[in-house]
Amino acid sequence: MNCESPSTLSRRDFLKASGAVALAGAGLSVLQAPSEARAEAVSPSEKVTLGFIGVSGRGTALMHDFMAIPEVQIGAVCDVYEQRLLAAKERAGSNPKTYADFRKLLEQKDIDAVVIATPPHWHPIISILACQAGKDVYCEKPISLYPAESKAMLKAAVDNKRMTQVGTQIHAGDNFRRAVEIVRSGILGKISTVRVVCNMNEYPGIERVEDSAPPAGLDWDMWLGPAPRVPFNNARFGVHHNFKDYVGSWLHELGPHIVDLAYWAMEPGEPKAVSASGGRYVLEDMTDVPDTMDVLWEYDRFNMTWMHTWCNGYNFGFGAPPDGGRRLSVIFHGTNGTLAADYGSLHVTPDGDRLKDFNAPEPSIPSSPGHQKEFVDSIKTRKQPPCCFEYHVPMAVALNLAHVSLYTGRKLHWDAKAGKVVGDAEADRMCTPKYRKPWTLPR
After folding, report:
1. What is the pTM of this model?
2. Taking residues 196-220, what's their average pLDDT?
3. Are 91 and 66 in contact (CB under 8 A)?
4. Taking the CB of the first residue and of the last residue of the chain, which one, N or C, has fewer CB atoms within 10 A?
5. What is the β-pairing status of strands 191-201 and 311-312?
């Protein structure tokens, strides 16, 4: 794996950079957030010119994050909704060129890289075409909905020698680093099971909205792109992550952030078998993603599970936000004890007296300068950032396969080298999307 893993630092240098871990009994506290880029003058020749494709809520937030980096300038913005496009142009403050079609933006010669924050069903096509156009790619998660898309995105990045970064910004936080260090230190003993939990209570769901004409200035057909043709509906447009055509499920929507910790710590590669179950058991609103989903992934050294309900917020005694919302954790079960971690806290539970003298390992993974800054630096150094496609795709394939298993109702056996489901032709066909014409998966 050629993505740049953070190198180790001396304890003195590390503590100077990011502060010390506070250990309270068997629990650990989170470190300070990554430092923000310093505002300082940068000569025009050192600027990195970005094009933003998709400038709704997440795209707007990413514009803000990248504009805080002194080396960045915005050269173009693209959106299929004119109202958002003009607002993004004004927000950029640098008079960027504007486009309604991302393919025109990719033709702009001075664009060094693109930031993709469209609905997820667009991510593979845009990412691949951007790589083929010689642009580096920052792509929001989920990068894909199907294994064939994930594989094609990686191939495009490698073949065209492009820098890539997936928008899993939690990876840049110090808390995940401390969790990875604990797992890799061997303190927990041999780990046979990793459990990933993500619960939230959104019952009774969203209000039903009738189909209508799209608002003026919105190209609804282009918004749909490769997805099935359906009438405009403001719920699909506004909360697309609740519809299978655009995201698959909440495993695709939130899994890349949470499962990332398990993949970083355990480095398992693609799974050898996957089984999933779930469905719409409670919600009766107009959305169609599963309100309940459980997954079991089998690897050579351990099993990993995903447990999600959209209609109950129980936190399993860990990670409950004080104001409600998501209850999530990644739980590593070892022969000596169990580590439970979420975005901002850690807790180690000894197994009997096996960890009675537990001490956290010396910090060794340095703090990130910021997830977006990592990407900008990679454009200049030509060294891949930590969450490049090569790092991320094995996890993306695992998430993709879970949906194939869910919708076939069968356990899948996966040949990672061949990129095929073994012994199930129907499931193997479902690993490749059927795009609405004229769109195809670029090769």
Report:
1. 0.91
2. 95
3. no
4. C
5. antiparallel
